[in-house]
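Quick one before lunch.
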Amino acid sequence: MTHETPTYAHEIITRLGRSSPGQHEFFQAVEEVLSSIQPLLDAEPHYREHAILERMVEPERQVLFRVVWEDDTGRVHVNKGYRVQFNSALGPYKGGLRFHPSVRADTIKFLGFEQTFKNALTGLPLGAGKGGSDFDPKGRSDREVMRFCQAFMSELYRHVGPTCDVPAGDTGVGAREIGYLYGQYKRLTGRNAGVLTGKGPGWGGSLGRTEATGYGLVYFTQSMLEDRGESLDGARCLVSGSGNVAIYTIEKLYDVGALPVTCSDSSGTVYHERGIDLPLLKQLKEVERTSLRAYAERHPDAEFVPVDAYPRDGHAVWRYAATAAFPCATQNELSDGDADALLAAGVRCVAEGANMPSTAGAVHRFVDARIAYGPGKAANAGGVAVSQLEMAQNASMQHWSMTKVDTRLRTIMADIYRRSADTAAAFGAPHDLVLGANTAGFRRVADAMIAHGIV
Ligand code: NDP
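Model of the NDP complex:
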């Protein structure tokens, strides 16, 4: 009987399974990255000599804190707050804050790990971090959200700063929350510093940050399709989610001549054959902050599928036929069964706006089918890229035009695609952007870590 020697990546994955039990999302993210970079690890044994994988899967620092706040009736609530400072090899820790009841330490670790490679891929001087809370802003008044944000920042301010750690928004954290967090930071420190990105354009924010992740996702997809002699012009598209990323993906899809026919939220999925009504979607989600049920009430020709009517093994949004699919809601929202359904219906492109929205099995199916598949850490990097442009504007006391920001965003997304595709081709797998993106991101971080010595 022969025993294969475990590879370096496999050894670290096995060890992590033992040392971080129960952290399923973090483990899934690590397993995907490490197994895809094995060809590089085989070619460059010095990464093992420097114990790079062992260092990379361990966050530099994790802060867990209590957040105590009072609701409008005077009742006291306690939530958990997190900030994980994952890797600073390339620059200050950078990554969003997520406020959602599903947030656990595991969630924040997986997001911070993903962020390390995403930020490296942008080519910008950005380290990686992530944070958040299990607080649910849904149904809370503005005053309650303000009091929660103030309580959250009352601890977070000790750990962040414009040259050490610069958080931004993510699920449940938009312009309103960033405003309250920033106000409290200023009150506590007396400093008007660029310590958060996603600020309002009138008080230190960058034009184009709100749109950046969605627009960037479409720019990335255009580059990916161009390389295959295809385009989004006239393409029927499925989009999931109806938050920041989904809304501006839909907006840009219309700009480039595509037809987005779905969106979704935690209450269900909307299918609108003649195209999603974007002004209505913005009104419902950005102004009224209400459920998508209201969409179908105002458009009798649209279909609304409530969550309890979803297929057992997946999400209703992926069961319509389309050329391209853009998962923009949350992690693991696209199952193995959904991937089979999409491929059977002839999908030619899947580009991820959310972080790790496809299960590991779904990712394998897309790569094996050789469709144009853009993994989240490459395809959704537009948000963090424009956050870095906001940091640059803050540091130089400048305010750039929308055209300047958008032009830079287009270039950055085209570069991310090129870097990922060239790396994939160099390893003999030109269709595999998972390998390309992970390998290119890993190499940049690992080389910087080696240059910094054993720290
Ligand atoms: P938002 O909070 O603006 O929107 C999230 C959307 O997803 C909402 O429609 C929400 O529904 C839905 N959703 C969230 N969690 C769940 C869940 N567990 N089940 C079902 N639906 C859910 O977040 P963003 O648009 O900012 O973020 C979406 C994704 O994109 C996340 O994975 C995030 O990490 C990623 N991302 C975001 C970036 C950004 O710049 N904002 C940058 C890069 C990645 P409902 O309205 O009912 O809550």
